[in-house]
Design goal:
The chain is mainly β. The chain has four helices and 14 strands. The strands form two sheets. Strands 1, 2, 3, 7, 8, 9, 10, 11, 12, 13 and 14 form an eleven-stranded antiparallel β-sheet that branches. It has a three-stranded antiparallel β-sheet with strand order 4-5-6, covered by helices on one side.
């Protein structure tokens, strides 16, 4: 039986096309308050990102230096020379956030972990929703302005590094994911309303080029003057 997830995957280019995608690369600009709040301003705001779609692997460059890049997997993060050896690494990075609040500063390696898992979650979607172990339940519809969006409650397995095990996706009539709600567990569980727009078709798949992430209030609405993160992608390439 054709499911809502099938409709979503079809809207983004189809399962067959996504199965042939190795990586998505783009120039990126990050904004928002989190970088200064976490004492990591100036490290990741501009540069390039590469996400390997079929496995949880991300790299940002430059990263703390013009000739350096980050290397993220769920079990290990590192800072490497682009044409040389690893300078720093951290195994089991998730545990390094134990006891963190929203105001706790991040190290450069912790920044590599956060940006790595976040960009993989975003750019490998929707195909990562089809991975065995991901549990999806359809919830009640949500009215956003003049639009009605279908809500999906997604529970990720322990093998996924992401903001929180349970997240809510909002899907429009075309099958595009327009919003996601979660709490950032590694930053004291801060609640977020994450909006997605500027969808581009690149080499047969659909990729959002703009994301705006706000603090979410107790009524499930974004607080417009509390922009936590913004993401803008240009020169998107599919490998």
């Amino acid at each position: 039986m054709h499911t809502l997830i099938d409709d979503i995957v079809d809207a983004y280019g189809g399962a067959q096309r996504w199965a042939d995608v190795t990586a998505i690369c783009a120039c990126k600009h990050f904004g928002g308050a989190i970088w200064g709040l976490k004492h990591v301003a100036g490290i990741v705001e501009d540069g390039e990102v590469t996400v390997w779609v079929q496995r949880q692997h991300t790299s940002l460059r430059p990263f703390t230096g013009d000739d350096l890049r980050s290397d993220y997997t769920p079990d290990r993060v590192a800072i490497e020379r682009i044409d040389g050896p690893t300078l720093e690494s951290l195994d089991g990075p998730r545990s390094s956030f134990d006891g963190h609040t929203l105001e706790t500063p991040w190290s450069a390696l912790q920044l590599a972990y956060f940006t790595g898992y976040a960009m993989w979650t975003y750019l490998a979607e929707p195909i990562n929703l089809t991975v065995p172990g991901v549990v999806i339940e359809q919830g009640t519809d949500w009215v956003e302005g003049h639009q009605v969006w279908r809500r999906l409650h997604v529970t990720y397995p322990d093998s996924f590094a992401t903001h929180s095990p349970h997240q809510v996706l909002y899907v429009d009539d075309e099958g595009l994911i327009r919003r996601r709600d979660y709490q950032v567990d590694i930053a004291g569980g801060s609640p977020a309303a994450h909006y997605v727009s500027d969808f581009e078709r690149v080499d047969g798949i659909v990729i959002p080029a703009r994301r705006m992430i706000y603090v979410r209030d107790e009524h499930n609405n974004p607080i417009p003057d509390q922009l936590v993160v913004s993401i803008e992608l240009t020169d998107i390439r599919v490998v």
